[in-house]
Every structure is written in C-alpha cells, then in structure tokens.
Amino acid sequence: MRILGLDYGDKTIGVALSDELGWTAQGLEVIRRKNEHQDFDLGRLQELVAEYGVEEIVVGLPKNMNGTIGPRAEKCMEFAEEIRQILQVPVRLWDERLTTVSAQRTLLEADVSRKKRKLVVDKIAAAFILQNYLDSK
C-alpha cells in the first residue's frame, strides 16, 4: 500500500511517496502552484495516485506551536477536503510543526547550495511529514 505525503504551501506543494510496504518515505517532486487564488490543476496528483497505486494521502497540518489551528492550517484543511472529494482517496491530516525547519537543517548539514535547497526543501519536508506518519503506525 503506497501513501502520498504532501507539504502544502502558498507557492509549491512538496510531494513524497512511501515504499510499497509503507516503511519509508522518499521525496518525489515539487508541484508549483499557479498563484494563491487560482490553485494548481489537481491532474498531477491524479496522475501520481494512478501511477503509484496510492491508497492514502497525508497532508501536513501546520499547527501553531501551542497546538492551535491558525489561518495557514485552515487552508491546509480546505485543501485536504478538496482532494478527498476529487481523488476519492482517504486523506489524513498530520501535524507538521517544524518539518520545514528540519528539512532546511538537513540540507544545510549536507552542504547543499542555497539555490538547490530552494528547489528541494518542500519535497524533503513532505518526506519528513510522511515518514513521521509512517513511524506512528
């Protein structure tokens, strides 16, 4: 059973995929959003779900540090509901606090250039979200 992990942001959506056994997460790609008001075409997510036989999707939920839900988290919840209805796949929300910070730190430790970090940080954050979810199961 493959699970897709998503790090939903204002400009990009990081995508990660689990292995077939659901043990490990790997960063897959970054989907660019058109703009904040006109979202991207869900077609790419539909393609990924079909291509990899995805049976579940995990969307990072950026809670505030005190555990409350803010405006950014509300947007992620709306996005999760939208893809649940359109893709007809179970969608789970997963606390993503500090995943982007962890992804940035990992890339810095690996001595990845600033330019390359900017290109991959979202898919690494998606992999962290998905891996944390897999580890909890």
Name the features.
single chain, 137 residues, alpha/beta, Nucleotidyltransferase, domain 5, five-stranded mixed β-sheet, 26% strand
Number of domains: 1
Number of helices in the DSSP assignment: 4
Q: Could you give the order of the helices and strands? A: EEEHEHEHH
Fraction of residues in β-strands? 25-35%
Percentage of residues assigned to helices? 40-55%
Q: Separation of termini? A: 13 Å
Write down the overall mean pLDDT.
85
- Major β-sheet profile: 5 strands, mixed
For the biggest β-sheet, the strand order reads: 3-2-1-4-5
CATH homologous superfamily designation: YqgF/RNase H-like domain
Describe what is shown at a glance.
It is an enzyme of class 3 (hydrolase). The protein has about 140 residues and is an alpha/beta fold.
What does this molecule look like?
With 137 residues, the chain is α/β, with parallel strands linked by helices. It is built from four helices and five strands. The chain has helices spanning 43-52, 71-87, 99-109, 114-136; strands at 2-8, 12-18, 25-32, 54-61, 91-95. The protein has a five-stranded mixed beta sheet, sandwiched between helices.
Question: What layout of secondary structure does this protein have?
Answer:
Layout: E1 2-8, E2 12-18, E3 25-32, H1 43-52, E4 54-61, H2 71-87, E5 91-95, H3 99-109, H4 114-136
Parallel strand pairs: 1-4, 4-5
Antiparallel strand pairs: 1-2, 2-3
Helix pairs in contact: 3-4
